[in-house]
Amino acid sequence: SILYAVIGDPIVHSKSPIMMNRAFLETGINGVYVAFHIKDHALPDFVAGIRAMNIRGVNVTIPHKQAIMPLLDAIDPAAQAIGAVNTIVNDNGKLTGYNTDGIGYVRSLKQEAMPQLQGKKIVILGAGGAARGIVYALLQEQPEQIMLINRTVSKAEELGSSLQAYCMEGSVLQACSPEQTERIIAQADLVINTTSTGMFPNVEETPLDTSLLSEHTVVSDLIYNPLTTKFLLTAADRGMKTHGGLGMFIYQGAYAFEYWTGVDAPVSAMRDVVLASLS
Ligand code: ATR
């Protein structure tokens, strides 16, 4: 069989092996996907191991998404712009780093909640690593504007200026000042929570009061533990369309699978097996 892997620290709770092995089974591809617990100091040895064992594909998770980059032979331009790699493709010993998190999120969003992003007004809550990947991918969809709202406003400003170069004509990317916030939120077509607010075990927390939103707003949360956060529950109660974080996990894996195999990922089988493992 052809070997695939995911690395992280911690890694024991990863759902990637269950999801990817199901994808290999479904498509009849003779692949085996395993999880390795790799500490920081062992990262260079692991990369030597990819070459030595001819591992075809690797997913990279926390805390290695940045540190892996200088150890690879090439970095895809989008991964370079995002500053993080979550997928490695090994072509006969040449290791290329990609980032499928942001595009995975966008594919999930379009598939499950909002088919058309062009011309839309988008609000991002949070300005960390997760926000960065998603904003980069959303900019490719030519939204009218992306407004960044963060507890620490200076971090939103930094994120906005560092991705300005990827903002196409007709789109605006900007940090939201505290005075603008209420108006910007009320006008949003889409609000995305990228912060950890509401994640298990703090399930009663919400990143924003949904009474500030208009009923036409689509509300999205990257969190998938719980599958439906309190933020999404309160939005649904007010009649808004909602989108949870599980799809981002499924589709980041779907893109990785497609990069490695060239075969369309069996998305619904992948989702079923992950859902079954969560309950
Ligand atoms: P990730 O890679 O998951 O994005 P990160 O880079 O540490 O993690 O970013 C976390 C983001 O969540 C930040 O925008 C952070 O806000 P600050 O920049 O002000 O720290 C936001 N965040 C985390 N906990 C939060 C909380 N309790 N309330 C509001 N924002 C929070």
TrEMBL record:
GO molecular function: shikimate 3-dehydrogenase (NADP+) activity
Domain of life: Bacteria
Residue sites binding NADP(+) per the record: G126, A127, G128, G129, A130, N150, R151, T152, V153, S154, K155, L222, G245
Record pathway: Metabolic intermediate biosynthesis; chorismate biosynthesis; chorismate from D-erythrose 4-phosphate and phosphoenolpyruvate: step 4/7
The name this protein goes by in its record: Shikimate dehydrogenase (NADP(+))
Organism annotation: Paenibacillus yanchengensis
Protein encoded by which gene: aroE
Residues covered by the Shikimate dehydrogenase substrate binding N-terminal domain: 6-88
Enzyme class per UniProt: oxidoreductase
